[in-house]
Amino acid sequence: MKKFRLPTSNSVNKEVPCSGYQIIKAAFQHTEDFKELEFKRDNTTLLFCFLETLISEEKLKEYLLIPLLLEDFKGIPDELESLNGKKVDNPDKLISGILNGGNVLFLCERDEAWLFSFPKDLQRSIQEPVNEGVVRGPHDGFVENLDTNISQLRLRIKSPEFKVKYHELGDKTKTKTAVIYMKGIADEKIVKEVERRLSYISTDMILSPGYIEEFIEDDPFSLFPQLINTERPDRAMANLMEGRIIIIGEGSPTALILPVTFFAFYQSSDDYNSRWIPSTFIRMLRYVSFLIAITLPAFYIAIIAYHLEVIPHELILPLKGSVEGIPYPPLLEAFFMEITIELIREAGIRLPKPIGQTIGIVGGLVIGDAVVSAGLISNIMIVIVALTAISAFVVPSNEMSTTVRLIRFPLMIMASILGFVGLTFGLIFVFIKLCKLESFGVPYFSPLAPLQVRDLKDTFLRMPLWKMDERPRNSLTVNIKRQRDSRGWKKNEPR
Amino acid sequence: MIRILKISIPALVTTLLLSACWDQHLLKDVKLFMAASFDLTPDGKILDELTSPIINKDQGGGTVKGHTVTSGIGNTPREARWDIDRKTDKIFEASKLRVLIIGDELARKDLYSVLDLFYRDPKSSLSAKVVIAEGMAKDLLRLKTEEEKISSYLFDLLESQEIASLIPEENIQSICAEMFDPGEDFVLPYLRAAEDGKTASAEGVALFNERKFTGRVLTGDEAVIFLLLDGNAGKSPKFTKKIVESETDNFMPQNFVSFNVKKAKETLEVKVKRQRVIANINLSLKIEITYYPRNQLYKKQEIAKLNKKLSEMLTNDAVAAIKVLQEANSDSFGIGRMLIAHYPDYWKQVDWKKEYVNVAIIPHVELEIIGHGIIE
Amino acid sequence: MNRDKEMITYQQFFFLIIQTQLGVGVLSLPYVMHNSVHSDGWISVLLAGLLLQGVLFVYFMLFKRFKSRNILDIAGLLFGKKIGKLITLFYILYFISVGSLILVLYARIVDRWILPHTPNWVICALLVVAGIYLSVDGLKILARFYTLVTPLVILVVLLVSYTLKDANIYYIFPIGQAGIKNIVIGSKDAVLSMLGFEIILLTFPMVSGTNRQKFKAVSFANLFITILYTYLVVVSFIYFSPEEIKILPEPLLYILKSYTFKIIERTDLLFLSIWIFLVFTSFGSYLFLAAKTGSKLFYKIKHRRLVYYFAFIIFGISFLPEFDIQFIDYMSSYIPKTSFIFILFPSFMLIVSFLFKKSEQGCEANDSNS
């Protein structure tokens, strides 16, 4: 191949009459990364307009300039037309095309405008998401590029039923957003509902899926997250196959899964990568962690401040010794420690990794130890708060973890006002809320409320895969059957 | 409207926060009393003593450094408590009581008048063990034990003797049903302070008639066999019996056998025949020999002989124990309850407290050796 | 109104009924039964369950004749609009008074057992606010929540069963000592403790499923409650001696007071917390029923608003015992007595509908004529 050099000069003949060109020129005024190239071939003027920061120069050269300029120009060859070019009349479309990494080719004499798309590959390599680690399982994750993300999913689900619908969200940012679902498994009504809600979004900027989430979730005042955020393609895929819908936006590695229930936040793809008995155990552990995380400090406060009769004989004197001489009421004590832990956590995230770890150690060991020996906090309270903190972080979902950490504060306050009665009412409020919430028509606390016995097998337990012949009902799937007798083989079958 | 709710709930919460927490009862602000005694003073007042552990705060939490005893006097147990409350530096808290000791003088008058204090209070600890003390109950609290806490010393002492089945396992609640029942009486452990003032020893079973201590105590083997007959025995009742009499040798251990009861099953049958109540108590025991220097247990007939001999001896013990029971007029087998259940007509016409001494209570102990340690 | 939104399944119906029935009364049930029938109280409970089944059958017949109508609509059809409204008003008053009775009794027990110094209005306010929160959003939420908390009943049974190891079975002998007459009379008190099944009268048409399925759910609920109550009564009767139970107004709490486990002592406090859940569900039901009935009378006001108003009234009533301590006793003796009128009234309606040969079709014809 002959060497081809892009002309650097901006030698555009301003007199070329070409409809649309002026509009584009005006739109990209003061935009210095906007480039125009003009070539004359035979009796045609070819005028290329593009944003050099968005376009991939190699691709432009290879697919457009070389084929067009090295040979005699006879019009746009068919191959190119079929490759990725199309004829566009609307100047607005041309502008948005350029903004999406396109190259506009004006054929001035013919008064035609062609749009070719050669976006620059601006993406990091595929890595395992750090915030959703698994022990065993695929170690790839979504990236910031929407097409890559969709292709990751497509590679996993090779089915024509895999449907993608694009939406442009954000008046200014024009963030491309994909709504993905499996036709014939997912309920089209929910897809419609999602699109209806998306259509109302009229903000000028979509920063992240968090924006979309806030615009479309059912109850924005609730503490509980109603859509799952995930960066794991395998998790997204599993949810697709259960009949859920996925929303991915350009520029963010996070996919939104809907509709979801409370219990979905406690499922991790790890559960399905290991065998079912350990998975069930670990899943149970997570639910226990939920209860511990929301009630333990409140329970402790209620006991220490109200119902010391409840403490077993063996424990009462050690406990008494530990709280002896603490100047603050237990509620303040607990708040102090909880907030300390939150501070350590937040500081650990913001700082670079090596320092973050140091902060954790300093915070955990030094503060904990010093605070006890200074007599500010009882050491039992440290144990309680530490246990609670660990429990809150067991949740596979960061959003739910935050929720859990927040819910315990009102419960602690209730318990410090009325002891067990307060705690009971606090729990009543939490559970009513869980019963009331719905996520896109799915009761949030299903399959417990309303009770759906057949769904329990993949909620509290993780039944063997060959037992789960049906998809969960709480995804409102229209195709309940998943498999039929996958373990139909016999041990001593004649070969 | 939902907005009003959303504003009103936080508002309510804040008002609650700002106001006092009415029932708050912080662990750090209380003085825990863990053992109590009640005595009758000569002038008819109630003397209440309570012990509380002294807790020293240090790095690793708290350690117990001895205990204090506080005493109070009043016309009622409650008033005596208030008297103690006046002398207490922190908030008075007796809901973690573990041991309640009643002096026998007071127990002879009326036990319920003390326990009403506990039954009536929602916070009280009904699982505390109740014992009767020989003499003044407060002496037991003032023992100079090696232990840091007198409460746990007494508690552990009682617990170990419950397992050995020398004393019944009772707490404040468990005697309540029988105290109120006309057809059954309860029993309590009987404790005595040793002369040296350092230890206490469990003596046996204090017998009650309705709410009053009868003054009679079953001790030693009689106490154990009584608890077995009553179906109230602990995990491993033990006996040591002299099986060979009139040996000239003055080296004694040769003459004895010791055994543990592994399994006990008792049945109480009550019949009314010609207006006379006959109660048969059958007790079958499966025992394990734990000491038998004559070691001939590989012989079948030796075992049979031993079975028979021991059965007889235990039956004799049972007869002796029942005699004491009837003399004390304490119907702790619940024969009256059986009469109410099966012979309600008879029960209505009889004055049970007078009739009880005339009841023929016939014990029959059947014993079977099922084990002998790891040698024969 | 959106009907679909309000519909519950017949399985949920079962939970709805039992959770409404299980409430304040369960703590003192053995005491009440012992007061009236002594050691044979448990037979009365069984008998009451049987009687109740008869009442339920009457309800069923009525609902069969008037498909997809609740009791107030039927009353309107049978007696005309004016009287129908009057009946509706009485039912509102009834539900409100039962709601306030629950509130007052609950406050008394909480006050007695765990929070003696906390002002009663705080304890009441908590229940009322929680009740509002539960019942504003319709029957579906109630049904979901009740299903969720039903496993707590199993916990109650387990806790109570633990005491069986110290029980004395001879305390309930001889069986039948109270005499058949007393046992039958006593079953009246047992029926009162099972109050709550009136929820059927209003919610029956809001349940999806065939009449047969619904009636099955109702019968199973009755069976469940009867067995549970009998069990609880028997356990307390064989744990406490007959003389003792006379002085224990809340035997089921007392029974657990002396039991300790390694991790938690004083199981009665745990039990009380569970019991608050059960009381709350009954209270929520009655608040919902009051508002539901109210919407028939004040059809311009939204359900949500009615819940607020009625909750406020009930909360107001809960202050009355502060002025007159006798008031609780008046309430707890008169309200249950009048409730007989309300639970037996449907059978009168059934008779009327038979006598005048009125059923749904006939009535609708009449309705359109008038």
In words, what does this structure look like?
The complex is a heterotrimer of chains A (495), B (376) and C (370). Chain A is of the alpha+beta class. Helix content of chain A is 43%, strand content 13%. In chain A, the strands form three sheets. A five-stranded antiparallel β-sheet of chain A has the order 1-2-4-5-3. Chain A has a five-stranded antiparallel β-sheet with strand order 6-7-9-10-8, with helices on both faces. In chain A, strands 11-12 form a two-stranded antiparallel sheet. In chain A, α10 (276-305) crosses α15 (398-436) and α12 (330-350) runs antiparallel to α13 (353-373). The longest helix of chain A has 39 residues, at 398-436. The relative contact order of chain A is 0.08. Chain C has 370 residues and is an all-alpha fold. Chains in contact: A-B, A-C, B-C. Chain B binds chain C through residues 1, 5, 8-9, 12, 16, 22-23, 122, 125-127, 171-174, 176-182, 184, 334, 337-338, 340-342, 344, and chain C through 112-119, 122, 125, 129, 132-133, 166, 168, 170-171, 173-174, 177, 239-244, 257-260, 265-266, 304-305, 308.
The mean pLDDT of chain A is 83
Strand count, sense and closure of the main sheet of chain A? 5 strands, antiparallel
User: DSSP strand (E) fraction of chain B?
Assistant: 25-35%
Biggest sheet of chain A, strands in spatial order? 1-2-4-5-3
- H and E string of chain A: HEEHHEHEEHEEHHEHEEHHHHHHHEE
Describe the biggest sheet of chain B?
8 strands, mixed
* SSE string of chain B: HEEEEHEEHHEHHHEEEHEEEHHHHE
Global outline of chain B: globular
Helix coverage percent of chain A = 40-55%
Low-confidence stretches of chain A: none
